């Protein structure tokens, strides 16, 4: 297996082993012994001859055996020496538990860099620093300072926070769930989330991967690795630092740079990651995914002994986008015969408040046997006359290999079986209908992603040479803001429909252009120093005569001289007025972690006020372009409402795909904005009305982009 010396070591040196309970070095050594680690344990402490019954080395340099893993728990100032001695002793992997590195500032960053370089030069993999350690239940190895040793199971955990690792261990123990691997990655000086995702993907013991992240080291590598992992087993991640305050805290916590949360959401979607918004959701999802099969559809049956919780469940199902299943007549008839006359047979199925194990079992089996049902949520509200513990066991025993059952258990905790017993029965339980429905929805959406067809990205025939020349010219003259004229020239090269237009340097030239392209025309100032032309009165529309063209030319140049006297004026752009359509916005911005990210939204107040946009990472497929449209709340307007005709959606999806290709062809484009993009009825061509591009000053990026064609 990958990282075998770290995850399956045969010998472990504990550098900084202590005789004092409560100290990290003592707890790690004690945990290795208490967990039943069968390999060799080598305590290292210059002041001790024996600790916890083991012979202790004063110095690792005198050790003559082999060391697979060195666990370092010494003061920060001594870590560098401990790393050097571990490498000299030919340790294959090192875990630095000690804090006080990059998360503390420049001095700590320098020290972390030094130990990282030492390990890299020696070919030794480094975990941490500033981490809790790691656990492998199959190997009976608890090389951490968490006293909790979970039972063996199928969930593997990685976390950027040691404290949350401990919370995850507590959660698993409370629910009676087994874990496979638990890894605290800390500052990620060498080994990071991508390395462990790759290792867990090929680990036969791991059935579900759960993680807490504050930052991602390499966006592109993460997406590829996470996508491979999610294609074989569920991957559930909680990403913190989604607000400005959270991002600042995350940076202070681990010293990592937290990216834009919109980009993270797009990356998780692309990779098939199941995103948990809260700590509770992280384990709600993990429990269901580790215990139950994925639903094949979104039709849900509710079985309950109380009306109120069933209504809550029905509301949550509809709000989540899933459906209440419509039971077929045969199963409904059988249920009517088997249940009391007062029972409600329609979905939700109400087996009444005094229902016991037999009545619940009858309803559960009938629902599971119904072809119209994809999943079952069972609600149990204990009453004095019911047998809740026996009922829950009966429900678990009625399970199916191909349809999931999730239980909602309300109240009377003392009467319930232990959580461990429920886990042993593979029955995930929840404290509210909403949490159960959220877990079921996560399972359903993951199943959809798993069954999604292979991604095929369309490549359009374009004039890449023309774009290379324009971008190269701008970068050579250090102009990173590209105006409307040059941007439209680039978009024409990628086959966007752009109104005919040319730059005029005099009123007479403007008249000649207007007469050649045909009235009415629009006139706009051209200046590398003015991004928003309307701010200085630099736009005038619907000009319909030569006299108006002359007057407008003089008016626009006068306004610029008065309102932006320092701005350079390179002429006036005379452009054919186009037929109006529905205003939409197509855009792209380059995320520092994940690269080009596409944006779609309706124009006007939909973007400015409602923030109704969708974002996907490039490159996108035709299906993903359509998904971008469908994810907006205003999608109904595109389809036509109250007698309005549908707009041509293919013009929008095609435009998004062309921007996707442009952004991936030229990574030195930092931002692109087409606003507005007029879209007409089906069969009409969409039109670029205004657009701009920002470039990045990055010689390496420029070299990579032009490397294949120069």
Key descriptive features of the protein:
Rossmann fold; 7-stranded antiparallel β-sheet; 710 residues; 7-stranded mixed β-sheet; 31 strands; 5 domains; disordered C terminus; alpha/beta
Give me the secondary-structure topology.
Elements: H1 4-7, E1 11-15, H2 24-35, E2 40-44, E3 50-51, E4 54-55, E5 69-72, H3 76-88, E6 93-96, H4 106-122, E7 125-127, E8 133-136, E9 141-144, E10 152-159, H5 162-175, E11 179-184, H6 193-201, E12 208-213, H7 219-230, E13 235-239, H8 244-254, H9 261-271, E14 274-276, H10 279-291, E15 299-304, H11 307-319, E16 323-324, H12 329-338, E17 349-350, H13 357-369, E18 375-380, H14 388-397, E19 405-409, H15 419-424, E20 429-430, H16 433-450, H17 464-476, E21 481-482, H18 484-493, E22 501-504, H19 507-517, E23 521-525, E24 539-543, H20 546-563, E25 572-576, E26 582-591, E27 595-602, H21 605-608, E28 613-617, H22 622-630, H23 635-639, H24 649-665, E29 669-679, E30 687-688, E31 691-695, H25 699-706
Parallel strand pairs: 1-2, 1-5, 5-6, 6-7, 10-11, 10-12, 12-13, 13-14, 15-16, 15-17, 15-18, 18-19, 19-20
Antiparallel strand pairs: 3-4, 8-9, 8-11, 21-31, 22-25, 23-24, 23-25, 26-27, 26-29, 27-28, 29-30, 29-31
Helix pairs in contact: 3-4, 6-7, 7-9, 10-16, 11-16, 12-13, 13-14, 17-18, 19-20, 22-24
Please characterize this protein's 3D structure.
By secondary structure, this protein is an alpha/beta fold. It contains 25 helices and 31 strands. The chain has five domains: 1-131, Rossmann fold (3-Layer(aba) Sandwich), CATH 3.40.50; 150-291, Rossmann fold, CATH 3.40.50; 293-450, Succinyl-CoA synthetase domains (Rossmann fold); 500-577, ATP-grasp fold, A domain (Dna Ligase, domain 1); 582-706, 2-Layer Sandwich (D-amino Acid Aminotransferase, Chain A, domain 1), CATH 3.30.470. β10, α5 (162-175) and β11 form a beta-alpha-beta unit. The strands form six sheets. The protein has a seven-stranded mixed sheet with strand order 9-8-11-10-12-13-14, sandwiched between helices. Strands 21, 26, 27, 28, 29, 30 and 31 form a seven-stranded antiparallel sheet that branches. α7 packs parallel to α9 (261-271) and α17 packs antiparallel against α18 (484-493). Mean pLDDT is 90; it is low at 249-259 and 701-710. The radius of gyration is 32 Å and the shape is flat.
């Amino acid at each position: 297996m990958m990282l075998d010396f770290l995850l399956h070591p045969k010998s472990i040196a504990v550098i900084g082993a202590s005789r004092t309970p409560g100290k990290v070095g003592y707890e790690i050594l004690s945990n290795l012994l208490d967990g039943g680690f069968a390999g060799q344990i080598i305590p290292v402490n210059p002041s001790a001859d024996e600790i916890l019954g083991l012979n202790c080395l004063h110095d690792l340099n005198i050790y003559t055996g082999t060391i697979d893993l060195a666990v370092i728990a010494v003061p920060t100032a001594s870590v560098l020496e401990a790393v050097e001695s571990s490498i000299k002793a030919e340790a294959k992997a090192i875990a630095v538990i000690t804090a006080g590195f990059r998360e503390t500032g420049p001095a700590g960053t320098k020290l972390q860099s030094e130990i990282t370089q030492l390990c890299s030069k020696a070919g030794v993999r480094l975990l941490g620093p500033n981490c809790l350690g790691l656990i492998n239940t199959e190997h009976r190895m608890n090389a951490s300072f968490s006293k909790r040793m979970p039972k063996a199971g199928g969930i593997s955990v990685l976390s950027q926070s040691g404290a949350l690792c401990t919370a995850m261990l507590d959660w698993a123990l409370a629910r009676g769930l087994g874990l496979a691997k638990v890894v605290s990655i800390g500052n990620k000086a060498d080994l990071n989330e991508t390395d462990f995702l790759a290792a867990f993907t090929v680990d036969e013991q791991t059935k579900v991967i759960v993680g807490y992240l504050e930052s991602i080291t390499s966006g592109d590598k993460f997406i590829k690795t996470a996508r491979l992992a999610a294609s074989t087993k569920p991957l559930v991640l909680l990403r913190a630092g989604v607000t400005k305050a959270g991002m600042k805290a995350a940076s202070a916590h681990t010293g990592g740079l937290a990216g834009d949360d919109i980009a993270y959401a797009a990356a998780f979607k692309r990779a098939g990651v199941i995103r948990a918004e809260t700590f509770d959701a992280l384990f709600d999802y993990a429990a269901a995914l580790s215990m139950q099969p994925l639903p094949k559809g979104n039709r849900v049956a509710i079985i309950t002994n109380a009306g109120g919780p069933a209504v809550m469940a029905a509301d949550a199902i509809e709000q989540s986008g899933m459906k209440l299943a419509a039971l077929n007549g045969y199963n409904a008839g059988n249920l009517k015969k088997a249940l009391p006359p007062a029972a409600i047979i329609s979905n939700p199925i109400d087996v009444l408040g005094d229902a016991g194990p037999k009545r619940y079992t009858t309803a559960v089996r009938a629902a599971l046997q119904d072809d119209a049902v994809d999943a079952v949520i069972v609600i149990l509200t204990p009453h004095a006359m019911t047998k809740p513990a026996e009922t829950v066991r009966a429900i678990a025993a009625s399970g199916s290999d191909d349809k999931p059952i999730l239980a909602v258990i309300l109240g009377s905790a003392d009467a319930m079986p232990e959580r461990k017993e429920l886990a042993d029965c593979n029955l995930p339980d929840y404290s509210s209908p909403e949490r159960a429905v959220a877990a079921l929805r996560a399972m359903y959406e993951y199943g959809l992603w798993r069954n999604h067809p292979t991604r095929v990205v369309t490549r359009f025939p374009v004039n890449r040479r023309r774009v290379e020349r324009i971008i190269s010219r701008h970068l050579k003259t250090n102009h990173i803001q590209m105006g409307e004229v040059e941007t439209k020239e680039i978009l024409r090269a990628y086959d966007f429909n752009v109104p005919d237009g040319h730059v005029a340097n005099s009123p007479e030239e403007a008249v000649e252009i207007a007469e050649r392209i045909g009235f009415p025309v629009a006139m706009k100032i051209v200046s590398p120093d003015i991004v928003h032309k309307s701010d200085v009165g630099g736009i005038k529309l619907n000009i319909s005569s030569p006299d108006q063209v002359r007057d407008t030319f003089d008016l626009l140049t006068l306004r610029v001289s008065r309102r932006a006297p320092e701005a350079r004026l390179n002429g006036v752009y005379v452009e054919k007025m186009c037929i109006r359509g529905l205003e939409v916005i197509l855009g792209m911005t380059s995320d520092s972690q994940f690269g080009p990210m596409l944006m779609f939204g309706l124009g006007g107040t939909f973007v400015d006020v409602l923030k109704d946009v969708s974002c996907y990472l490039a490159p996108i497929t035709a299906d993903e372009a359509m998904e971008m449209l469908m994810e907006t709340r205003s999608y109904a307007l595109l389809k036509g409402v109250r007698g309005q005709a549908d707009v041509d959606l293919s013009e929008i999806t095609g435009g998004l795909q062309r921007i996707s290709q442009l952004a991936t062809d030229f990574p030195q484009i930092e931002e692109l904005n087409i606003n507005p993009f007029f879209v007409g009825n089906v069969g009409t061509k969409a039109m670029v009305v205004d657009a701009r591009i920002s470039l990045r000053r990055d010689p390496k990026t420029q070299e990579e982009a032009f490397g294949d064609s120069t």
